[in-house]
């Protein structure tokens, strides 16, 4: 079916500020690789934004997670607890180190890691917990940090989807020991591909800087005391990042405005559950996410198909990782399985207009 209306993407970057000027400057000056002034500037701006001492830019968010784990000494024989309802990168980063990801269920209220289920999965081999702030809503950190303290575990926030979100007033990326962000094209801000670690720990920060550059001795060039990685970010990427940081508050305000607009219009539909925002949380609504009730007249996939026919993009929720081929287990994590089955992400780009939202809402009304 052809639709006369414009295609509404799920997400698209907005690069209309100083992005072109800063990237052009890299090209004109020749500083296109991983040395150059934008890298340190981007790191500092992002660290300040999170309220932490150190920001270490890397090639992508998965590399950031991997380096955090390596820097904490996690490896073969270790277990790391992760939510099953997250992007696969959270689990893959654990697997890269030789450690085992242990999957925990989600909370029905926040869709994030359930601290009680985490507690049940702690063994003598557990070394760390990775709470993920899924779709922009912070995880319930206090009980997770408390468990970590009791059992002497590391906490790494996977904040790839939640730049600027707040837990009890504190920015995500400042709550765990060392934390990971992504700047992939659909994230709150983008550097094309890119990632960054935040930490207040001087020693961990130094370790990560060392590991991202092939573990080269800071005193002796081309002398390597261990096997490191090339996880460096380029000055070109950081130039985009600096320009995006100039507008990050505006982007977050827009995401929140989009969510509140959808909420107002969808609230009247009983068979749709709106996205959570806990009393202790400020979500950045990276994606505007809804759940369809079991008695919704169409299945989740039928709803997505119908939107598609009206030139409206959407995405299903993540598939729980514990049912996916590389990690398949027999355990059942019922809350995450249920959320995954019923969840849809609706268009949430900062370029979205009011009339776009009205079109999407109207399409859902007609199906409900
Ligand atoms: C995007 C994302 C990542 C990975 O980031 P990349 O930059 O794509 O490697 C990790 N975790 C979560 C939860 C993500 O959404």
How is this structure best described in words?
The protein is globular, with a radius of gyration of 21 Å. The protein has helices spanning 19-29, 37-50, 61-71, 89-96, 115-120, 141-151, 202-212, 235-245, 248-266, 300-309, 334-342, 354-367, and strands at residues 54-58, 79-83, 100-104, 126-129, 154-155, 166-167, 170-171, 178-182, 195-199, 272-273, 281-282, 288-292, 315-316, 343-346. The longest helix is centred in the last third of the chain and has 19 residues, at 248-266. The chain has 368 residues and is of the alpha+beta class. It has 2 domains: 19-245, Type I PLP-dependent aspartate aminotransferase-like (Major domain) (Aspartate Aminotransferase, domain 2, 3-Layer(aba) Sandwich), CATH 3.40.640.10; 248-367, Aspartate Aminotransferase, domain 1 (Alpha-Beta Complex), CATH 3.90.1150. Strands 3-2-4-5 form a 4-stranded parallel β-sheet, with helices on both faces. The mean pLDDT is 97. Pyridoxal-5'-phosphate binds at residues 60-62, 86-87, 89-90, 132, 158, 160-161, 182, 184, 195.
Main traits of this protein?
Aspartate Aminotransferase, domain 2; single chain; binds pyridoxal-5'-phosphate; 368 residues; Aspartate Aminotransferase, domain 1; 2 domains; 4-stranded parallel β-sheet; alpha+beta
């Amino acid at each position: 079916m052809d639709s006369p209306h414009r295609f509404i993407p799920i997400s698209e970057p907005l690069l209309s500020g100083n992005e072109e000027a800063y990237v052009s400057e890299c090209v004109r000056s020749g500083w296109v690789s991983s040395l150059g002034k934008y890298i340190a500037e981007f790191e500092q701006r992002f660290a300040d934004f999170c309220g932490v001492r150190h920001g270490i830019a890397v090639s992508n968010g998965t590399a950031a997670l991997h380096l955090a784990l390596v820097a904490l000494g996690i490896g073969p024989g270790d277990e790391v607890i992760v939510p099953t309802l997250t992007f696969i990168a959270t689990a893959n980063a654990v697997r890269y180190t030789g450690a085992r990801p242990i999957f925990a269920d989600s909370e029905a209220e926040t869709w994030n890691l359930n601290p009680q289920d985490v507690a049940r999965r702690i063994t003598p081999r557990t070394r760390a917990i990775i709470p993920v702030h899924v779709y922009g809503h912070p995880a319930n950190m206090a009980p997770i940090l408390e468990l970590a303290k009791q059992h002497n575990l590391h906490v790494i926030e996977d904040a790839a989807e939640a730049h600027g979100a707040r837990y009890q007033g504190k920015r995500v990326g400042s709550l765990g020991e060392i934390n990971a962000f992504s700047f992939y094209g659909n994230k709150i801000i983008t550097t094309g591909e890119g990632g960054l670690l935040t930490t207040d720990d001087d020693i961990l920060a130094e370790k990560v800087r060392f590991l991202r550059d092939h573990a080269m001795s800071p005193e002796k060039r081309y002398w390597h005391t261990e096997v490191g990685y090339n996880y460096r970010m380029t000055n070109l990427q950081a130039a985009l990042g600096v320009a995006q940081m100039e507008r990050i508050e505006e982007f977050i305000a827009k995401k929140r405005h989009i969510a509140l607009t959808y909420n107002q219009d969808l609230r009247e539909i009983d068979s749709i559950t709106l996205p959570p925002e806990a009393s202790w949380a400020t979500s950045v609504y990276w994606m505007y996410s809804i759940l369809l009730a079991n008695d919704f007249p169409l299945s989740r996939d039928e709803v997505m198909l119908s939107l598609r026919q009206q030139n409206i993009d959407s995405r299903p929720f993540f598939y729980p990782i514990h049912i996916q081929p590389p990690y398949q287990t027999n355990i059942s994590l019922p809350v995450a399985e249920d959320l995954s089955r019923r969840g849809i992400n609706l268009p949430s780009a900062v370029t979205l207009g009011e009339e776009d939202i009205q079109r999407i809402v109207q399409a859902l009304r007609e199906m409900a």
